[in-house]
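Hey,
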Amino acid sequence: MFEEADTGHEAVMPDKIIKDPDWWRGAVIYQIYPRSFNDSDGDGIGDLNGITERMDYIASLGVDAIWLSPFFTSPMADFGYDVSDYEDVDPMFGTLADFDRMAKAAHERGLKVMIDLVISHTSDQHPWFKESRSSKDNAKADWFVWADSKPDGTPPNNWLSLFGGPAWEWDSRRCQYYMHNFLTSQPDLNFHNPDVQDAVLDVARFWLDRGVDGFRLDTVNFYFHDAELRDNPPLSADEAPSTVDPTNPYGFQDHVYDKTRPENLAFLERFRALLDKYPGSTSVGEIGADGQAVELTASYTDADKRIHMAYSFDLLTPQHSAAYIRRIVEEMNAGIGSGWASWALSNHDVKRVGSRWGDGKDLARFAPLETALCASLRGTPCLYQGEELGLTQAEVPFEKLQDPYGIRFWPEYKGRDGCRTPMPWVKDNGNGGFSDGEPWLPVAAEHLQLAAFEQDKDAGSILNRNRTFYAWRQSVAPLKKGDMVFLESEGETLVFTRSYENKTVLCAFNLADTPATLILDGLELENLNAPGFSGTVHKNTLALEGLDAVFARVKS
């Protein structure tokens, strides 16, 4: 079992030695949802000291960086994605000194630290909004998106909130509506105001000065809205979205005016200019835009101009056939230009891939296969906490739900709590070693057998297969930075090459439960013996078991 990391050292950031400013290309980023990772003080909620306690475990995974979901001061209406103070830690997670100790522990183990930057909106408890709503002529009156009602008192246009209902909330102080893309308690900032841009850049600077290595930018294409407040058109029937639950009317609109506005590009250039003052820092944006993922990833990550990389939801959907995955990845590779993608198969907002793609499959074989596949695509893979253990989606009963999104759309859509349940560390207590108190969400009983320290004892476990694969991958440069070309293959197989500095690696995945044999004319291959997979190579023939992979060197 891993020893707990020391939490007593001074809160001083070490000097950074930047050996490779492009370290983020192909780096494995481990996403931590702090509320559910590890509770150090017994209140049932994970915290920063809990992360520090598990830093040796994180380092053992072979990942390159951690990304922390929000831990800022917040009323927690949306569990930290409603920020009331960008430059402090919410007491439930600890203190700024605790953050410094956590970051130092990560840096000492060679891990980069990235944090969530939630700047498209604030909490309605943020001092900026309190001042803005106080009158129509105060210093921050135009810091949020305010608009008069229509003559009949209805909202200014037809924009909808992703969390249900209109994207407008009436405020009796100003006798105006304010815009919110999410909860009514999450008012949208007005990025058309240069002072707002300056303020959020100051927030980023605060954390960069504190030693963070980069940011995950929440809803990066939501920053700007149409200044004329034009109505969104309906989404045509042949443009049905893939990432919005069909029970949510938000998916009935083509969101051309309430997000993804062209003005965003200029702001992202300002953001990148700030990052460039901190060598080795990076950024990954979350793009929520159906049908535009390739176009936006290309423009948002245009090399050296805007953010470093971005991910969309195209592999976070139920679709998972080999043909679908190939189409999504090929389209991205063909259209991204000088930009760089990030790929994730699970995160804190979607059903876990172990259930979404792995339902009915042998989890012991499927879970290491999907993480290896994600880490073999051209781009930067994100690994969501528990994915390394093969966790499936937990069933949270309605009376225990915490997610306002799920509560509103229950039972057809059960929300995000099922992927946010606490990490299981040990199997022999009901809380899975997560907390000595009652956890904020129940630990799934089926997760206890997959507990981290239980799997640690088994060399052939899902956890240890993932560890050994990531460790092996560190020395295979083409899998981190190489170009990518798909080869033709049948059935539920994916075959592609990754090439970098005159070295080419062939990757073959069998997503089916049944064996597959592939003959690749014109290639001479040598098995690279990727740990954890039993696929074999004989000259130009690949033999794979069900849910298996093989990696081979292509001889020149």
